[in-house]
Amino acid sequence: MTTATAPSATSPAALRARRKALLQWIAVHALGVAAALFFVLPFVFVLLTSLMSDQQALTRDLTPDSWHWENYTKVFETEGFLTWWRNSLLYSGLGTLLVVVSSVPVAYALAKFRFRGRHLSMLLVIAMMMLPPQVVIIPMYLFWAKQMDLSGTLWPLIVPMAFGDAFAVFLLRQFLLTIPDEYVEAARIDGCGELRTLLRIVLPMAKPGIAAVALFQFFYCWNDYFGPQIYASENPGAWTLSYGLESFKGAHHTDWNLTMAATVLVMAPVILVFFFAQKAFVEGVTLTGVKG
Amino acid sequence: MSTDILPAKEAAAPAASGPVARGRNTLRSKRRRDALRTLAFMSPWLIGFGFFFVYPMASTVYFSLMRYDGLNPPQWRGLDNWAYVFSDFPQFWPALQNTLWLCVVMVSCRVLFGLGIGLLITKIKSGAGVFRTLFYLPYLAPPVAATLAFVFLLNPGTGPVNSLLEAAGLPAPAWFNDAAWAKPALTVLAVWGVGDLMVIFMAALLDVPKEQYEAAQLDGAGPWQRFRHITLPNISPIILFAVVTGIISAMQYYTQPIVAAKVASGKMGGSGEVFVPGYPDDSTLTLPQLVYNLGFSQFNYGAACVIALVLFAFSMAFTALLMRRRGGLIGSGD
Question: Mind telling me which CDD domains this protein's record contains (chain B) (predicted)?
Answer without folding.
Answer: TM_PBP2
